[in-house]
Fold this protein.
Amino acid sequence: QQLLCGENEVYDYDLIVIGGGSGGLACSKVRASQITLSKPTLPPDLHLSSLGGTCVNVGCIPKKLMHQTALLGTSIQDARKFGWELPEETVKHNWETMKSAVNNYIGSLNWGYRVALRDKNVNYINSYAEFIESHKIKATNKRGKETFHTAAKFILATGERPRYLSIPGDKEYCITSDDLFSLPHCPGKTLVIGASYVALECGGFLAGLGLDVTVMVRSILLRGFDQEMANRAGKHMEEHGVKFLRKYVPVKVEELEAGTPGRLKVTAKSTEGDETIEGEYNTVLIAVGRDACTGKIGLDQAGVKVNPKNGKIPVNDEEQTNVPHIYAIGDILEGKWELTPVAIQAGKLLARRLYAGASLKCDYVNVPTTVFTPLEYGACGLSEEKAMELYGQDNLEVYHSLFWPLEFTVPNRDNNKCYSKIICNKLDNDRVIGFHYLGPNAGEVTQGYGVAMKCGLTKEQLDNTIGIHPTCAEVRLITDQLQSWCSLANAKRPARCWAVSTTPTCGRRALILPSWSLFLTV
Amino acid sequence: MAALCRIEWHGIWFVTGTFDYDLVVIGGGSGGLACSKEAAQLGQKVAVLDYVEPSVKGTKWGIGGTCVNVGCIPKKLMHQAALLGTALKDAQKYEQWRPAVQNHVRSLNWGHRVQLQDKEVKYLNVKGSLLDEHTVKGLTRTGKETMLTAKNIVIATGGRPKYPTHIPGAVEHGITSDDIFWLKESPDVALECAGFLTGIGLETTVMVRSIPLRGFDQQMAGLVTDYMEAYGTKFSWRSVPKSVDKLSSGVLQVTWTDEQTGKDQRDTFDSVLWAVGRAPETKTLGLEKVGVKLNKESGKILVAADESTSVPNIYAFGDIGEGRPELTPTAIKAGKLLARRLAGRTNELMNYDNVATTVFTPLEYGCVGLSEEEAESRHGKDSIEVYHAFYKPLEFTVAERDASQCYIKVVCKRGGDQRILGLHFTGPNAGEVTQGFAMGFQCGATLTHLKETVGIHPTCAEELTKVNVSKRSGLDATVTGC
């Protein structure tokens, strides 16, 4: 029980934030007079102070930079078609150059965060934190030195780390995303195990750099995402040289030859029978999910309830755990998005509620997101499956189209591969409850739609918005075309217009003229 | 003879009360095609007349109008070529990509022809003009005449680049955007289109009389031109061209007045490109005869909210309508709605407000709503709050590119939830970024909505959801960290 007065006399700090990642830093910066503890990351020698968490060091930032590297490779091919004269030999990629450049940039971000915290009078401690009582933690640094701190309130923002497979050879020979972005040597022929967005994004850009990539998938791609979109994104990867081994699970990894990279042998078993296969790779990247870092921070000592199955922490809509003075944000939350901007938003708003008298809660609905596969996939709202489950197929209207970005026309690539759809709720004024876009710059396209959906975008408002021309984002103009098509077909208007339009509009006409789909946007 | 024919034709529709067509559309561009196809789909009998008067230099093209042939499409493709060059920092061969771009344009021409046929819209490659309120005369290139009668007539003839005819040598030696996309030889140097020309390695100078991007937010226009200058395009500000002479070497000598010093300057160029505005094609349409009223200054047709002109069954829309935005998507939408209204299917009028647009300069600029100046003038400086941020696209970091002009500005109404009056963005993929926000704008988005929307990370667009420094506060608006 806290004393009603003299709170600050009882404790060392008003607030201790455990975790210096996206969430932890966001709430630290709002409020001064507190400390942030950051667990030293492994391996510790690579980043002097890897402040910034997963996103900055081994997530979003290096991922997007390497994705960009791969896209530039495609641009080089396109450039020839636009008249740029390049030497006839294939342009090659140097892994070490890219890795150094990316790591240098990350280092500058780490430094920037240190300065920002200092400016805001936040005490940063680079130590591993553990609760020993509900208001007291023990902080152990790299050298084993222990210090003790107490605070009135705590915010847990410890994030997650990649999960391993629990098969022989996984920890000894395989790498995860924690290792990939600072790997000193080129990974070479790579097997990616997993079908998460981490697996597909990493597999995607590695293939884009010219490496031989295989992705081993146990069942479905991008679990939790709209499956039609996930499969289209996967199909694009396949068409661009990524090999997929569907319905297999690895059973062991053996080292054939040590080296940088070495040679590894992977044995895998089919999920549908007794068949086993073997393959040889230079690198095996495990991307089967991430586990919350809540196991070793003494939460039992503090009395914080944790879901034993996944280590995640259930919170109420104010991010409060079952212990009133302990809060949690970010990837460790039960049932919430594992995204940097969500963690940042939650962290800021929480700090404001705690110390600035604000009352605004974090809105976890209609959070836009993007998967940076070679053909990017942006989404906001419900998947088609989830929408059908919640509202019933008859109450939904799905408008969709294939399209061909203008920039792809001259190089003549990926015709009719880009795709977008919106899902509307007929019972609620045709409100847009799902937006999905597969195409270039998906993040840039999707962001604004996120704002519009927050405003309660309806189909009518979407139709009333004039497109910017020529862009990919204007593709939703297609919905006009589809509406008229439905009436032309003279059939009873189907609940899902797409069955009518796909074959005649895109398919047939695409046969006559590759540029036809461009028409659909004009 | 012609007069006799006219009276005869007059007589025929007057007597029978029937027309050859329900709708005749004069102009086969973005607007005209959208309108005619929509009308045909609704069961109307439609004819579309399209005719391209060759440019002064003799350039001509097929159906599709400005956008497809000498506007948006080739422009964006060449802009893309230049952007790829930035990715490569290499020399280019104009002769290589020009055919690629032109092939694409030709395929679009062909596609439009086939679509019209599919929808049973009669297409006539003739120059249309009005004889009376229900009769259109079509003239082929060889002078052969056709007559069509129609219940309703729609004029969607668009505009053409203006030549400054008062400047000696301007017409003989200069080219316009009509020509640049179709030249056989590389225009080694040209004014305007300077961005992509610089991008493909040509030495380019832009001569500006007073301000760049008139009508746009001037702070943003300044960022755009600053970037172009840093990128290698030369600017000659406050300069008024006086004459263009061809020298014996074939090179063009341009003389201009520097308005600041009052002195005359002179320099030589391989090409001179005029981009001083577009004028509507109304002179040869026979409008005055029929009684369609024009704006004397601009030459554009005066139209009401439903696109009607001063003559009851004659309509006009697209670039040719007075006070309308000169944009393809606006023309398409207006054309479709007009067709639906004429077929009696709707009463819905076109909403011209809040049209988003993007300028595809090397640093692209996307915007929707009011400029800061317009917001100030309409609401008063004290009633608006302007939030802004200088950000750095992630892709520029490793590539070590200068991002000084990458900027975001959100102009809001002060107080309450702070309704957004205008949104401005300079940076890569500005069109893609702006489109979704335009939709939010349409839904009445406020600053609160913006801030409550979670960003997508890492993108440039997410910076718009993170704006929080106001101009009024005077604080540093540079985004730090990730």
Q: What stands out?
A: The first strand of chain A starts at residue 13 and ends at 18. The two ends of chain A are 66 Å apart (CA to CA). Residues 1-8, 39-48, 477-522 of chain A have pLDDT under 50 and may be disordered. Chain A touches chain B through 87 residues (CB under 8 Å).
